[in-house]
Design goal:
Length: 409
């Protein structure tokens, strides 16, 4: 039956098997109803539509411009906030504000993230990777998420910001609960945990700021605090929001690129050999893995005016989801072999895994460098790694990745 004759396929990330393989479901949706209304939002599944959405300056990233605030999910959030005795506050991180605030906030931190500043971190990253992999080698294997994919980006962003030593496990739990809140569907319990962890994280960041005021150094936190002390460049609430964003975005995404990336290489041994036999493929290979695993599977905007995607009218104030993971596997963009991992793919760099336009990922160079160093070292040192147990998925629809990847080397 052709797509026109059949019922449209509705996007449903709660389907059994979705965590292991969201892509075959995306493909069905993309072929059948690539622009559709789901859970009070509009979903876009084609590359061209997602690209247009992300680059459209008339799109907002501020939820308050959306009717979703009156919807079911907003009511759920209000109920949880009320039961905890807090009021849901506007998120002032750059990811969630429009120009001119966005421009000012992004400019304040962007110098630390230029490709040149990032390249200077290469020796630090290589040392961290070598240390972790020495342990894996000595033990004959281990969990590559717990031992490499998680601690590497966490330690690098901690170092860049100049955060004090803190209990990594506790922070990992808070940040895991917080990022669950950006899934398109969550339970009331998950919403409650996200709120509670947000409150804990907020208190922690406030303590970090106080500590750093007393212990300034040559780091990003000190530079941001100076901007706040300057008065009109950054408010205290904005300072707190940018630190939280950088800290969380700095590790909750790259972990998935490295963890799921290596898993996909293990599942595609011919591609692992391509990398091992030609280490110069690393730059293109990481772009191809970004396309293939989309560590951030979706991104959202609010339409400020009526707008059309693939012939479908979307009204002003609608909440629109760009399903980046689907865009990155769209055969109209990447060809009939879009579902194949091909580390030499010429168009790999055209993925939208980092978004596009004004909010294009600020940490893209950092994430790519971390993945190039980590995965090149893994491929070089453990080309014959085998699974030592079932990999466990993290249960997140948006920041999809592995919770653990047990291997023998
Ligand atoms: C593989 C790893 C990563 C992926 C896939 C990723 C993905 C993304 C995406 C898709 C966006 C845009 C969201 C939108 O348009 O709505 C974004 C924004 C952002 N990312 Fe990343 N990211 C990664 C790593 C990082 C790292 C390491 C940092 C470092 C701190 C970072 C910091 C940010 C920031 C600050 C923004 C907001 C930019 C803005 O609003 O102007 N990301 N990221």
């Amino acid at each position: 039956m052709s797509a026109t004759e059949s019922e449209p396929v509705h996007f449903n990330p709660l389907l059994p098997g979705y965590m292991e393989d969201p892509y075959s479901h995306h493909a069905e949706v993309r072929a059948s109803a690539p622009v559709q209304n789901i859970f009070e939002r509009w979903g876009l599944f084609r590359y061209d539509d997602c690209f247009q959405l992300l680059r459209d300056p008339s799109m907002s990233v501020e939820d308050r411009n959306s009717d979703i605030l009156e919807g079911e999910r907003a009511a759920q959030a209000d109920a949880v906030a009320e039961s905890l005795g807090v009021s849901p506050e506007r998120d002032l991180s750059m990811l969630n504000v429009d120009p001119p605030d966005h421009t000012r906030l992004r400019r304040l931190v962007s110098k630390a993230f230029t490709p040149r500043s990032i390249e200077e971190l290469r020796p630090v990253i290589q040392r961290l990777v070598d240390e972790q992999l020495d342990t894996v080698a000595a033990d004959g294997g281990g969990d590559l998420v717990a031992q490499l994919a998680f601690p590497l980006p966490f330690d690098v962003i901690t170092e860049m910001l100049g955060m004090p030593d803190a209990d990594k496990e506790t922070i990992k739990i808070w940040s895991g609960h917080m990022v669950k809140a950006i899934d398109p569907i969550i339970s009331e319990e998950e919403m409650r945990l996200a709120f509670e962890s947000g409150i804990e994280m907020d208190a922690h960041i406030n303590k970090v700021i106080e500590w750093k005021r007393a212990n300034p150094a040559d780091d990003l936190l000190t530079r941001m605090i100076e901007a706040e002390e300057d008065g009109d460049r950054l408010s205290t609430a904005e300072l707190n929001a940018q630190i939280t964003l950088l800290f969380i975005a700095g590790h909750e995404t790259t972990v998935n690129l490295i963890g799921t990336g290596f898993y996909e290489l293990m599942r595609n041994p011919d591609q692992l050999s391509v990398w091992r036999d030609d280490l110069d493929v690393a730059v293109n290979a990481v772009d191809e893995l970004l396309r293939y695993v989309s560590p951030v599977q979706m991104s959202r905007r609010v339409a400020l005016t009526d707008v059309e995607f693939s012939g479908v009218e979307i009204p002003a104030r609608a909440f629109v989801l760009a399903v980046l993971a689907s865009a990155n596997r769209d055969p109209e963009k990447f060809g009939a072999d879009a579902d194949q991992l091909d580390l030499r793919r010429a168009s790999a760099g055209q993925h939208v895994a980092f978004g596009s336009g004004a909010h294009y990922c600020l940490g893209a160079s950092l994430a790519k460098l971390e993945a190039q160093v980590a995965l090149t070292s893994l491929v070089e040192r453990f080309p014959h790694a085998t699974l030592a147990g079932d990999p466990i998925w993290n249960g997140r629809i948006n920041l999809r990745g592995l919770e653990s990847l047990p291997v023998s080397v």
